[in-house]
Write a structure and sequence with these properties.
Blueprint lengths: L1 E2 L3 H4 L36 E2 L2 E2 L5 E9 L3 H9 L1 H5 L5 E4 L6 E5 L12 E9 L3 E5 L8 H6 L3 E10 L2 E9 L5 H27 L4 H8 L1
Parallel strand pairs: 1-3
Antiparallel strand pairs: 2-4, 3-4, 4-10, 5-6, 6-7, 7-8, 8-9, 9-10
Length: 216
């Protein structure tokens, strides 16, 4: 991990945050706590640019170039239908300061289910930045879950009319085995989710009904 400053992140938002929509499912898959890099070809396009700040704080960072227009990429990440098109079958997003960010990766889930992931929108700049406070579910170790210090920031940079660089940074990490385990989960999960976003703009949106039938 390289040491550099947090200018690029703090310029986007005064608070560093962890993005789990973007992370991986905290629902069923979190029990496995995968780690390392996903092997699928779309996730392989994601670059891990994590680093340690001058004060010794770890920042988990991933980035990927999406071949789509800025508005389309923004909509995919910040609307109910957008998230459902590649990430989760269940989503309810309130895109406003303090807004609710409720999702579930489980097919057949509904808004309001007890195992839903309930994060919070901290702030956003349309077409530029989205910041979330991550609320870990009970599937995670007690230490990180009770600390409540994980935050994420997602930035969108248009490179050309059909190319967008997305950077996701997670901060608020502490030290210890439970934190390392949680880091490993999001290291794998964030790369996977960004890879699925890339896949969505190549192969089209996910058909959750088809997946549900296949799972029966």
């Amino acid at each position: 991990m390289k040491r550099h400053n947090l200018i690029s992140v703090s310029a986007s938002c005064a608070i560093l945050i962890v993005l789990v929509p973007l992370g991986l499912a905290q629902n069923d898959r979190s029990k496995e706590h995968p780690s390392g890099a996903p092997a699928d070809p779309y996730s392989q396009k994601v670059k891990n640019t994590s680093f340690v700040s001058p004060t010794g704080e770890r920042v988990l960072r991933h980035e990927i170039i999406i071949n789509a227009g800025l508005q389309d990429v923004w909509n995919a990440m910040t609307t109910d239908d957008g998230l459902k098109s590649f990430m989760v079958p269940t989503a309810k997003i309130e895109l406003k300061t303090g807004g609710a960010w409720e999702t579930n990766y489980r097919i057949g889930s509904r808004i309001g289910d007890a195992d839903n992931i309930r994060n919070q929108v901290l702030c956003y700049v349309p077409l530029e930045m989205l910041a979330l406070k991550v609320n870990l579910t009970g599937a995670f170790p007690d230490g990180p879950r009770k600390a409540g210090t994980l935050f994420a920031v997602l930035t969108f940079k248009q490179l050309d009319p059909k190319s967008v660089l997305i950077t996701e940074s997670m901060a608020g990490w502490q030290q210890g085995p439970d934190w390392d385990k949680t880091w490993g989960f999001f290291d794998w999960g964030n790369a996977y989710t960004l890879g699925q976003l890339c896949k969505r703009f190549v192969e089209g949106p996910v058909d959750w009904n088809k997946r549900e039938k296949a799972a029966r």
